[in-house]
């Protein structure tokens, strides 16, 4: 147990760094300090440091990692930097909070900026990602650090309640359904495999996949003392925005411009106990973000609506009346009926997630969202890409056990 506050260093100064910092402010019951920040854009990092009272700013991730006072590095950087920075942090003996996903495939060694994933072997991608997960697992074990996988759905209060109801009822989780969808990422990096590592299946479906795997891990641990793992994967992907009649429409309400990545994906996981999960994601859904998990158990059925939910329902005949007020992520309009989120960070699970991570490091215990979950999510997603490309069910167990 540490005797002084846990000191956290944030790497990255964009969207996720901002919501992590806002959520650290809502963490209670743990002694900690956000002590430093490093971003590629010093002005953005300085603005966050000023807004959130962070005492030290470094010009690079390397410099922050070299600070002996930092206990945990919180990686809020693009996906392609996750694995390299986790490995560097482990070498320096720093605990890690890693945003989702754990890593990904961004092109073969030596690939130029114009590399595209079109026609590239998905089997080779899955092999490469399997090697990545093994490298991270070994580095974390060797260094004896705590790896915290920032899958906030594990901590989202509706999903926590779903899990408790499944535990209370002693249910076998027969079937899990879930979705994360919205009208499209606006981030430029998301358009291309080279910078994103995949499309909707990786960026969005990582959340429902993470939640479904977590629920089966938990069910196995409470019944038999070990997690129930996935054994096979079947997936389909598509680019719905390439449908000619849609392309011909003059007025668009959803994001377009996807290059070599999909904007829709669906994946079915089969688990070692014979249960299944059916999960979907798309960047083409209007009407605000749709985030939910439904569990069909043997003794209970529970739907966990992260977004939208009906805690607050609003109507206005003119969206301009709500101009100064945030409603909910990714709505195209504020007019008509809407479902404003009273506290989006809380219902999304961010403060509870960070509280668990700080407590895990302070008390030398495992976090609820751990490395096993991070690795299973990665391998399931890339097995999904292989399944979609070869139009077959892929056995994922050999990759999990490699
Ligand atoms: N859990 C969630 O709900 C959620 C939501 C959004 C994003 N994310 C994850 O967060 C991660 C970052 O996404 P984002 O939306 O914050 O992206 P972003 O582009 O808004 O921010 C990324 C930041 O990383 C910085 N950066 C890039 N290279 C760097 C380097 N070498 N050293 C230091 N800083 C560097 C950039 O300057 C930028 O400030 C992604 O992995 C994404 O999957 C998670």
pLDDT averaged residue by residue: 96
User: Would you tell me which CATH topology of the largest domain applies?
Assistant: Dihydrodipicolinate Reductase, domain 2
Percent helix range = 25-40%
Architecture per CATH nomenclature, i.e. the level-2 architecture of the largest domain: 2-Layer Sandwich
Q: Which structural class do the helices and strands define?
A: alpha/beta
Rounded to an integer in angstroms, the radius of gyration calculated over CA atoms is 21 Å
Elements, N to C (H/E): EHEHEHEHEHEHEHHHEHEEEEEEHHHEH
Ligand roster: nicotinamide-adenine-dinucleotide
N-to-C span: 34 Å
Structural domain tally: 2
CATH C-level category of the largest domain: Alpha Beta
What name goes with the CATH superfamily of the largest domain?
A: Dihydrodipicolinate Reductase, domain 2
Multimerization status: single chain
Give the amount of beta strand, in percent.
Answer: 15-25%
How many helices? The count is 14
Shape descriptor reads: globular
The count of β-strands is: 15
Sequence stretches where pLDDT stays below 50 over 5 or more residues? none
């Amino acid at each position: 147990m540490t005797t002084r506050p846990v000191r956290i260093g944030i790497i990255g100064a964009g969207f996720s760094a901002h919501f992590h910092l806002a959520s650290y402010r809502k963490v209670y019951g743990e002694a900690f300090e956000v002590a430093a920040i490093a971003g590629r854009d010093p002005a953005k990092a300085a603005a966050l440091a000023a807004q959130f009272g962070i005492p030290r700013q470094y010009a690079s991730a390397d410099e922050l990692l070299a600070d002996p006072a930092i206990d945990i590095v919180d990686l809020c950087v693009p996906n392609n930097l996750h694995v390299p920075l986790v490995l560097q942090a482990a070498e320096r003996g720093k605990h890690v909070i890693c945003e989702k996903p754990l890593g990904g495939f961004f092109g073969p060694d030596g690939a130029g900026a114009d590399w595209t994933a079109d026609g590239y072997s998905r089997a080779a991608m899955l092999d490469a990602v399997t090697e990545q997960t093994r490298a991270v697992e070994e580095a974390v074990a060797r260094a004896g650090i705590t790896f915290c996988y920032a899958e906030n759905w594990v901590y989202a209060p509706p999903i926590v309640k779903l899990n408790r109801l499944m535990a209370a009822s002693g249910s076998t989780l027969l079937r899990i359904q879930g979705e994360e969808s919205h009208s499209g990422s606006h981030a430029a990096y998301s358009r291309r495999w080279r910078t994103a590592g995949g499309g909707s299946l990786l960026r969005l479906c990582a959340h429902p996949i993470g939640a479904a795997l977590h629920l089966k891990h938990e069910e196995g641990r409470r019944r038999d003392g070990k997690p129930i793992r996935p054994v096979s994967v079947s997936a389909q992907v598509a680019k719905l925005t390439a449908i000619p009649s849609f392309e011909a429409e003059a007025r668009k309400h959803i994001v377009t411009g996807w290059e070599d990545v999909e904007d829709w994906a669906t994946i079915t996981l089969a688990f070692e106990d014979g249960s299944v999960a059916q999960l979907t994601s798309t960047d083409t859904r209007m009407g605000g973000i749709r985030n939910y998990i439904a569990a069909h158990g043997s003794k209970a059925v529970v739907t966990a609506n992260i977004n939208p939910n009906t805690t607050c329902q609003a109507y206005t005949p003119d969206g301009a009346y709500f101009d100064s007020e945030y409603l909910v992520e990714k709505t195209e309009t504020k007019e008509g009926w809407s479902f404003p989120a009273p506290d989006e960070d809380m219902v999304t699970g961010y403060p509870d997630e960070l509280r668990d991570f700080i407590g895990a490091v302070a008390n030398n215990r495992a976090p609820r969202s751990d490395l096993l979950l991070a690795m299973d999510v990665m391998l399931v997603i890339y097995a999904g890409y292989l399944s979609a490309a070869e139009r077959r069910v892929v056995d994922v167990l050999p990759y999990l056990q490699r």
